[in-house]
């Protein structure tokens, strides 16, 4: 009986892998959307400047956000497409709203 169950699971796993490969090949054919460079720059500049204003290291900010330290650094360099949950984590840790993170700051705000 156990052998039959394992065989069924193997067949199902093979089917899942085939479907996943098909889905990934379909994804390759579509152009993935990315945020504008300006929005990425605004977000990265805001996170960096707010972190520095609060006297936080990237490591301390990552602890407050529950994110990895290298992820925080890559967001500050504009290398990451940030998820909504990460935006929320950054805003909570820095004490600002999500719209504030995504809006250009006045020069007198820095």
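^ structure tokens above, recovered residues below v
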């Amino acid at each position: 009986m156990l052998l039959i169950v394992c065989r069924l699971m193997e067949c199902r796993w093979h089917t899942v892998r085939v479907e996943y490969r098909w889905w990934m090949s379909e994804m390759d054919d579509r152009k993935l959307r990315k945020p504008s460079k300006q929005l990425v720059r605004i977000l990265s500049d805001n996170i960096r400047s707010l972190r520095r204003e609060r006297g936080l290291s990237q490591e301390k900010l990552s602890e407050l956000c529950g994110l990895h330290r290298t992820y925080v650094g890559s967001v500050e360099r504009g290398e990451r497409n940030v998820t909504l949950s990460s935006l929320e984590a950054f805003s909570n840790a820095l004490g600002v709203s999500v719209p504030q993170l995504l809006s250009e700051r006045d020069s007198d705000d820095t």
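Residues 91 and 97 are 5 Å apart (CA to CA).
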